[in-house]
Specification:
- The chain is α/β, with parallel strands linked by helices and 334 residues long.
- Helix content is 32%, strand content 24%.
- The chain is built from 11 helices and 13 strands.
- The protein has a 5-stranded mixed sheet, with helices on both faces. Strands 8-13-12-11 form a 4-stranded mixed sheet, with helices on both faces. Strands 2-3 form a two-stranded antiparallel ribbon.
- Helix 3 packs across helix 4 and helix 8 packs parallel to helix 9.
- The longest helix has 22 residues.
- The model has no long low-confidence stretch (mean pLDDT 97).
- The structure holds oxa(dethia)-CoA (UT7).
- Oxa(dethia)-CoA binds next to helix 2, helix 6 and helix 8.
Amino acid sequence: MMENRNSAGILGTGWYVPERIITNEDLEQMVDTSNEWIVERTGIHERHAAALDQPTSDLAERAARMALEDAGVAAADLDLIIVATLTPDRVMPSTASVLQDRLGARQAAAFDLSAACSGFDYAAVVACQFIETGVYRHILVIGAETMSKVIDWTDRNTCVLFGDGAGAAVFGSVEDGLGVQSFDLGSDGSGSELLQIPAGGSLKPLTAEALLMHENCVHMDGRAVFRFAVRILGETVEKSLAKAGLKKEDIDWLVPHQANTRIIDAAASRLELPAEKVIVNIGKYGNMSAASIPVALAEAAHAHRFRKGDLVALAGFGAGLTWASCIMKWAKED
Ligand code: UT7
């Protein structure tokens, strides 16, 4: 870290998942799949789904309010709100602006950030730059998704994987030496076709034909993304560790993107981490894209799993292709 910079870290966390639960047994009634296949190949047992009239901003607001309370920061004292999402309420305005009004964060700038499942880590790193330089004091970072609205519920390759939720963290200045130690952000756009929503953007505006072909929904080459994920998740953490002059054995907690237990296990094995040090909640939530990491982080924090000074590694990957990791010394008193 550069000298004369503030240390930036997390002051409080929150999360929310919608009430409705879709079990693997429910999916057996919808597509040609089985509970056994889903559990064995992904580790997912159930996932939550937003109500039809419940937009991403609703999930984000609930997670945000919990994080603000946990941090002891008033919405009026926020300087910036960043919402990482691939399922914004609308293409414009940003979901962050909607949220800024709902929360009464009158002083806050607001924007959405697009880095798919890596979005929360990307947004956290952006937030830390403002805090470290002293430009802003309090920044609300949220990963929020309603994946259920962009899933093709007739495609067994994807519909069993995803879930809805939101996780939030308030970033601010923390005790010297604590907070974010290093990060690694990356992108390989040559893999942009592997995981995409083909229609609805300027490349292919939404037409009746595109809707008929379900091109407004997530399309994925699962095997290719799997291969990429297994390599990149451990690799990005190793890069962040090296930047901070730290070693694998210094990690107290890995909070990985929750896409598949086999991907998480591969990363844990590469980093030589025992299962007790890896936060895993995919079984009950599925892959919540940008919300996966902050929900796992917030749940673990509120379950008092982190002690002040613990080294916590956040690591994600997703469409883009993108990847991101961020290593922080937990700064909050339990
Ligand atoms: O958030 C970031 C993005 N997403 C990911 O990280 C996902 C990465 N990919 C994966 O997690 C895995 O590739 C999947 C879970 C998507 C698929 O698991 P897999 O072990 O790679 O399965 P596969 O794609 O190699 O398919 C094996 C078989 C195929 O049948 P055939 O061709 O061998 O007869 C599939 O058609 O499993 C079949 N299959 C299913 N069977 C029952 C695919 N989906 C299902 C399903 N139920 N839901």
